[in-house]
Amino acid sequence: MTEKHDPIESLLKAVKHNTLSIDEAKQQLSHYDELGFAKIDLHRKKRQGFPEVIFGEGKTKAQLIKIIESLLKHNEIILITRIDKSKANAIIAHYPQLEYHTIANIVCTPIDSIEKTEHYASIICAGTSDLPIAEEAAITTEVMGVSVQRFYDVGVSGIHRLFAHIEAIRKGKVSIVIAGMEGALSSVVSGLVDHPLYSVPTSIGYGANLEGVTTLLAMINSCAPGTSVLNIDNGFGGGYNAAMIVKMIESH
């Protein structure tokens, strides 16, 4: 068995051998970066395997730029969710090394620069109206270093479209199903695969959909086992959880 790398021990050895100054070591050991309006969690990657993710909604352009500066200073991967076009353009102008995904409303480290897993997650989207949430899930998964296969517009109103891709979906190690309306796609897929499935209800639907509450309740009440349900429109959560599953599989 491969011996686990101890970052603290490596840090102490670097100080001992004068390849790292005491001030540099103190900075690396710091638990967070104090920005006044935010405390950037610098140990998130050590605790959870992935750096702190920035929720873009509600933050100013200036705040976002300062937070990114802190993360880049510590060589962290950047993932900003729920970012509108105006803020995204300001960030890209300041940090042209990042990229903006318009459908997902995400700014991140370039996807192609991140090494991906051999196994993949299946991202399954019911309809075109659900694409922003599906892409939020897909991009999150990819930024976390996990390969994805996208299967879009395969909702139950034309279920033959799903069956045309079912073998490829089954080859994934985890599925994320994104659907609005009555959310039936989640139960259908869960009954056809032998791996974990994360359901993401969207707020897409007519009046009695209640902005996704009906979909959420339908998915929670699914009779198909092996399903975990995320919050309404939480594509990020679905992608994050799916990435953890695949990375855990490949680490063993």
CATH architecture of the largest domain: 3-Layer(aba) Sandwich
Instruction: Kindly name the structural category.
Output: alpha/beta
**Poorly predicted runs:** none
Mean pLDDT: 89
Q: CATH topology of the largest domain, anyone? A: Rossmann fold
- Total E-strand runs: 11
Percent of residues in beta strands = 15-25%
Kindly provide the radius of gyration, computed on alpha-carbon positions and rounded to a whole number of angstroms. 20 Å
What is the 3D shape? globular
> How are the strands of the largest sheet arranged?
8-7-9-10-11
Give the terminus-to-terminus CA distance.
Answer: 10 Å
Major sheet characteristics: 5 strands, parallel
Considering DSSP H and I runs of 4 or more, what fraction of the residues is helical?
A: 25-40%
Number of domains: 2
User: What is the C-level CATH assignment of the largest domain?
Assistant: Alpha Beta
Order of helices and strands: HHEEHEHEHEEEHEHHEHEHEH
Contiguous helical run count = 11
